Amino acid sequence: MPRSAEAVNRVIKAYDVRGVVGEQIDESFVADVGAAFARLIRDEADQVVIGYDMRESSPALAAAFADGVMAQGVDVVRIGLSSTDQLYFAAGKLNCPGAMFTASHNPAAYNGIKLCRAGAKPVGQDTGLATIREEVIAGVPGYDGPPGAISDADVLSDYGDFLRTLVDVTGLRPLRVAVDAGNGMAGHTAPAVLGPIESLTMIPLYFELDGSFPNHEANPLDPKNLVDLQRFVVEQGADLGLAFDGDADRCFVVDERGQAVSPSAVTALVAARELTRQPGATVIHNLITSRAVPELIAERGGQPVRSRVGHSYIKALMAETGAIFGGEHSAHYYFRDFWCADSGMLAALYVLAELGRQDRPLSELAADYERYAASGEINFTVADAPAAVAAVLADFGPAVVATDELDGVTVDLGERAWFNLRSSNTEPLLRLNAEAADADAVAAIVDRVAAVIAALPAPTGES
User: Fold this and answer.
1) Separation of alpha carbons 459 and 383, rounded Å
2) Looking at the keywords, is Phosphoprotein present (predicted)?
């Protein structure tokens, strides 16, 4: 049936499908999305693999999506409870398109779908989501042939085994590893991936699967959601802590002192290991990672390539350049040998392998890859993002050495200082990331940008 363009556009976004269950997304809607997706991929595949996270709404939504796929004559392979990177593994191993039901780090009321083609190739705005959106709005045509069949597959142990073939974790010194699953899917996958490593003692925190997130939001990018793990690491005398988001495709790292390790430092660490394995290789980094990342890649003989923020851009650039690895400051890490898809658990294995082969604590190891102070991502709600950016640029005036517009605007202030302002693809937000030689210089940039934005007209409904 035809649907309101306004309602569909609120849910089918630039990278995925996501909305409030019962208000913006329901079983009827995802059945239409499933049918449209099946039509999109029918000429290139005869089956779709489907996984889902621990949210209460996920099983029913996944079943409705499967019904839509099968109604178009395409088979369905169900893998049940899954992390997003486990779904990517299945799409790679089975060489078929996939659909993962998750709203990642969003609150419990939300759910959504991450879609990929065979080999875990992303489906985004320009690679299929726009077509799906148009068909859902117009009404998905029916199919006259026989319906598809449904089957089940358990890929969890194969997924864990495969990740461990990509990183040598033999002969490591004993490590105590605290893992905060945030009541998300890492509680399902960490035992399968990390459990068989004899030198590791895994200390679990919030492993119970619970889509209501009773302990904290499953979004470690927000510092308040790392506090429990930071305390836990110190209390347990752990060598490090690992925190995962709801669908466990992102991994955040805490050192033995309970201090967060920058995802840019993790990017540089993994890049260094990959460049040892393949000297001279290309490594992708997005434009808000620390400038230490391309510096370190170049110093180790690699070829750094700068990308826009977002998995679809990183994955496309990796395929285009043959890059061995890609990293984002949001703690998404992409691996050529994992179908160019992102895997937080695989990044964790790299950190464990590097730490376990030396006697130094993680705080000292991480310091090798950190050269600058950074603000982290700061969000501003604005009425007019372009006007806000223009006002900030005007305020900095002669202090601006150079700008570029690869993604939003990146402003070089000289003296090893820069900032980036870019609009969110999904929310009325302007995102600021700043970096400089020390914390005082970063604070000065942030305060100045915030003051300019605060002087602008407030968004409707705010004062």
Assistant:
1) 4
2) yes
